[in-house]
Amino acid sequence: MATTDPLGIAEARSQLGTLVARAVHGHQPTTIRRSTTERAVLISEDDYEELLRARRELEAGHVAEAIAAHDRGERETVTYDDRAALYADLGLPTPGERS
Predict the structure, then answer these.
(1) 16 in any annotated domain
(2) Is position 80 within any domain?
(3) 58/83 same-domain check
(4) What is the C-alpha to C-alpha distance for residues 45 and 52, in angstroms, rounded to an integer?
(5) Residues forming beta bridges with residue 40, ordered by sequence position
(6) How many Cβ atoms sit within 10 Å of the Cβ of residue 95?
(7) 7-59 residue pLDDT tens
(8) pLDDT at 38
(9) Is 23 in contact with 30 (CB distance < 8 Å)?
(10) One domain for residues 24 and 52
């Protein structure tokens, strides 16, 4: 679970070693704020890779459902001019974009 209150950058910097150890060994994420609207989360590399795997599985499920809907005649065949249009139609972020 993330720390209750986000840490400011200066505070996070002064505790960075401890925060990294908590993320790596305790799988405890820490939210760090730069401003009221800019925040980031410090997590372990293993947790990050797990999130990426889960995202890929979710996206693959969306694509598989779209294919199944087409096979059932519930979705027509569409030609796309570019990758962004395809991803938008599937309700997915274009690779490299935030979701």
Answers:
(1) yes
(2) yes
(3) yes
(4) 10
(5) 32
(6) 9
(7) 999 999 999 999 999 999 999 999 999 998 999 999 999 999 999 999 999 98
(8) 93
(9) yes
(10) no
The boundaries of the domain holding residue 28 are 7-43
Q: CA angle at residue 22 from 18 to 27, to 5 degrees?
A: 165
Q: Where are the beta strands (DSSP E) in 34-92?
A: 39-42
Beta-bridged to residue 30, according to DSSP, are: 42
Pair of tokens at residue 16: 């960075």
Answer whether residue 2 is part of any domain: no
CATH of the domain at 26: 3.40.1620
Token digits of residue 20: 């990294």
- Alpha-carbon span 99 to 8, nearest angstrom: 24
Same domain, 52 and 78: yes
Sign of CA pseudo-dihedral 51, 82, 84, 67:
negative
Q: How far apart are CA 82 and CA 78, in angstroms?
A: 12
